[in-house]
Amino acid sequence: MHTEQLDLRGEICPFTLINTKKRVSQLPLGAVLDVLIDNVDATETIPNWSRNAGHRVDGVEDLPEGGWRIRLQVDRVSS
Predict the structure, then answer these.
(1) Domain spans of the chain, in order of start
(2) What residues act catalytically?
(3) Could you tell me which residues are beta bridge partners of residue 72?
(4) Which residues contact 17 (CB under 8 A, 6 or more apart)?
(5) Helix axes 15-25, 42-52, angle to 10 degrees
(6) Is CATH 3.60.10.10 correct for 3-73?
(7) Where are the alpha helices (DSSP H) in the chain?
(8) Tens digit of pLDDT for each residue in 2-59?
């Protein structure tokens, strides 16, 4: 399984969502992307967009050092 990490800590919405969309569009089907964020708004916008775009959200996890990890699986080709 292809897994990547996208570290967006320090970025704010809408840039967290824009950069997540861009990276997902570059990944193959079945790839897993761990998005690291520290912006609370992104804990909702990224999972909501992902589900609406047809990707699986495997969860939003609190990180011990602060912030969150959102794990996505690319389940369809994004445009």
Answers:
(1) 3-73
(2) 13
(3) 33, 57
(4) 42, 45, 46, 49
(5) 30
(6) no
(7) 15-25, 42-52
(8) 999 999 999 999 999 999 999 999 999 999 999 999 999 999 999 999 999 999 999 9
* Alpha-carbon span 25 to 21, nearest angstrom: 6
43: left (phi over 0), alpha (psi -120 to 50) or beta: alpha
Residue 13 per-residue DSSP state: T
Q: Which amino acid is at 72?
A: L
Closest to 21 (Cα-Cα) out of 40, 38, 8? 8
Scored b (16 or more CB within 10 A) or e, 66-75 reads: ebbbbbbbbe
**Rounded Cα gap, residues 78 and 11, in angstroms:** 22
Work out whether strand 56-62 and strand 32-37 pair parallel, antiparallel, or are unpaired. Answer: unpaired
Record the pTM.
0.93
